[in-house]
Amino acid sequence: MPRRRSSFLTPYKGRWYFQRRVPADVQDIIGCTRWRDALGTSDFKVAERRCRLRAVETDELIEQARRRKARLSNDINEGRDSVVQRRSVAVDEIGRSQGSARYRREFGPLPGLAAGATDPIGYAGPVNLTVAFGGWRIASYRRPEPLHDFRETGYADESAAATATIPARDVSRPRNDNRSFRSPAVRPSERLSGLYARWRLEAHPSAEYADKVAAHFRRFVELHGDLAISALTRAHVESFRDLIAELPKTQYLRRNAAPYRSLESAVTHGRRHGLPVISATTVDHYLSAMKTLAGFAVKLGLIEDNPARGVRAHTGRRPYSERQRRRPFTGSELRRVAAAVDATWPDDDDRRWLFWVGAYSGARLEEIAQLDAADIENAGGVWVLQIRDGGGKKIKNYSSLRTVPVHPKLLERGFLEFCARSPNGRVFAALKKYKHRWGGLYSRQFSELLRNRAGLDDRRLVFHSLRHRFIDACRNAEVPLDVAERLTGHAPANRVHGAYGLGHAPQTLLRHLARVDPFAEP
Q1: Where is average pLDDT lowest: 104-108, 176-180, 247-251?
Q2: Alpha carbon of 1 to those of 4, 245, 418: distances in Å?
Q3: Would you tell me the crossing angle of helices 440-452 and 331-344 to the nearest 10 degrees?
Q4: Which residues pair with residue 9 across a beta bridge?
Q5: Does the pLDDT at position 27 exceed 90?
Q6: Per-residue pLDDT tens for 385-429?
Q7: How many CA atoms lie within 13 A of 273 on its CB side?
Q8: Which of 157, 235, 417, 510 has its CA 20 to 30 A from that of 201?
Q9: For residues 449 and 455, is the Cβ–Cβ distance under 8 A?
């Protein structure tokens, strides 16, 4: 016997929708006569699961509205100011949770006011701020402000409230629409999308990290829907982990755009074709996004505990020798890479110089790629690279701020002449930003060169392996630890001692750096 479909589940043009009538006794509080929400799928089983979750949420909203309405009715004689405050909270909690369209609706007069009396609550139009993430557009709204001023006098009964004169603010004067945005007070009835919007506004994450969180959060919403914050549980996060662990690697999904659009279709496509799945580290990145948002909700006091804390990818314990880690180049491998670089990219190509600067400085790729011509200075007769932040430049941490002498081998190869040819003030002028990073695209190009030109198929070898090799070369040259830390931008082993003074002079650093040869065997 076929299973009976939920009464709230409605098909329309091949897609499923949640549709439910709002009980008549709370329509004035909730502000609409029915809910109709797209479930975002054409699969019946998926739609039925999302419909059940939405039904539970609307049950909670109805019960909450009835409690609020009963409280308003009982307290109407306690004074108009009290009633206004309670009704404002009720409208804010329930109306806000229904979405922007319903939230902008005008509500009827307060219970107990005589016909024709002025409703003391007038709502200013909400200030719209749209936050886009992963193809979604989330609108945040400022808490409504009263358009009327209230007298301090309390009202003893409803007849007094009906006949009182309420001085109104002059609303004919144009309102200032350019006021700074004030993020709304997030309440437990608000949804995860609202929490993400507030996190992006108030936590001030970098654009790169915010985009990563958005992409991972979008996958969570695809599975569980836009849940109320208070409804988020550890079971939601664990089920998300179990499904995301079966997501195929991105490079296999890009060959077929259709299965890549939704999480469940991508997993089904991967199972059917036996595609390799993402690593446990990538699964933890997805979970980290939910941990970040849930932790922000805890900080705001919206929930007591972080349901994503302690949820990690399932990994079997493997021998340390089999674990995948970046590894440094050997001297012979680095010489093969240098030959491939010189044969592939001409002398004036930015990609060629990125390699040579990385090999002889040990700097991170982004630290090199974002260098300006003004960052190449002569300090007391020593040419140095100034690793700075600000002005669109990013560094990993405070220890990364440093002055690094230019290796004598780079000067011999004509690095200063290459910098002088910069047409726009940037050393590597041909680079374009890719995913918020100047070196993002080059990182892929360098990996392809390792595989296709240098014949190095070990996936643990990447551009960052140059930094590992440089540190090994410092050890082989018996460079003092504090000098090596200064050259590479690592935090000093003795943090107290390292916090004093200005650090090593460029002449001292150059004397040690000149002995470092990453291409030599120990």
Answers
A1: 176-180
A2: 9, 34, 77
A3: 110
A4: 18
A5: no
A6: 999 888 888 888 888 889 999 999 999 999 999 988 877 888 998
A7: 16
A8: 235
A9: no
Q: How far is CA 230 from CA 188, 288, 434, in A?
A: 5, 19, 37
Output the CA–CA distances (angstroms, integers) from residue 165 to 118, 124, 168, 413, in the order listed.
9, 21, 9, 86
Q: Could you tell me where the DSSP H helices lie in 100-233?
A: 100-103, 158-163, 192-202, 207-224
The structure's pTM equals 0.56
Cβ-Cβ contacts under 8 Å for 179 (sequence gap 6 or more):
127
What are the backbone angles phi and psi of residue 103, rounded to the nearest 5°? -65, -25
CB 328 within 8 A of CB 465: yes
What pLDDT digit, counting tens, does each position of 272-291 carry? 888 888 888 889 999 999 99
Return d(Cα 324, Cα 327) in angstroms, integer.
Answer: 9
Structure tokens at 46: 């998926």
Contact present, 36 and 19 (Cβ < 8 Å):
yes
Written as six digits, the tokens of 104 are 């902008």
Nearest 5°: the CA angle 141, 146, 150 is: 160
The pLDDT of residue 206 is 83
CB atoms within 10 A of CB 31: 21
Amino acid found at 520? A
Query: Do residues 169 and 120 make contact, with C-beta atoms less than 8 angstroms apart?
Result: no
Q: Report the 10 Å Cβ neighbour count for 376.
A: 18
User: What end-to-end distance do the CA atoms of the chain give, in Å?
Assistant: 76
| CA 153 – CA 157 distance, rounded (Å) | 12
Query: How far apart are alpha carbons 388 and 363 in whole angstroms?
Result: 12
Question: Are 135 and 86 a contacting pair, CB within 8 Å?
Answer: no
How far is Cα of residue 187 from the mean position of the Cα atoms in its chain? 21
Model confidence pLDDT, tens digit, residues 120-174: 333 333 333 333 333 444 333 333 333 333 233 333 333 333 333 333 333 333 3
